[in-house]
Amino acid sequence: MTEKLTGQQVLDADLTDWRLMLRSLHARFATGDFATGLELAGRIGTAAEELNHHPDLDLRYRHLDVRLTSHDTGAVTGRDVDLARRISAAAAELGVSAAPAQVSFLELALDTADHSAIKPFWRAVLGYDDHPSSGDEIEDPGAARPTIWFQGTEAHDAPRQRWHLDVWVPHDVAERRLTDALAAGGTLVSDAEAPSFWVLADADGNKACICTWQDRG
Description:
The protein has 217 residues and is α+β, with helices and mostly antiparallel strands. It contains 5 helices and 13 strands. α2 runs antiparallel to α3. 24% of the residues are buried.
């Protein structure tokens, strides 16, 4: 149950309510009202205690977002798959449907030739921690704000862009998101790494990447 699962293994598990993004399983349940969301959150809490494996929950008025990952391995494992199935079953018992096309996950990427020189500053100014399994990332200890990772690049002077957005989406939503972005005035900078990620730019040249788990091992 503690073995790290590949993207294909997660896909083969046929978790129709869930999508894999950035080492985590994500689901959105369209509860429709706050009371139903609270009821579902309570049932999730019971299942989590039974398994001693706890998800991140984000309850809003009309939906409940759930994120599952095994923090000790920094990846999705069989424990997450097991709990995901139980959560889906609890939602079904309440007549709550999932909305997998609505889930997404944002991280911020900062280009740098030497992340060791700037990571301490961003860790301090944001109150972040080092990522436990990735030396080029820092994360919010409360898991409420985006992860920041430092992307290697050659040394260069401003004003060349250094920040860009990595927008993680379900693998079966990526091409639609790409089409919508291009129709909204964006341009395709590169699809050389697709379907792992596509690089897009707005009319001013500011870049964002649409990312999926595919072709990442």
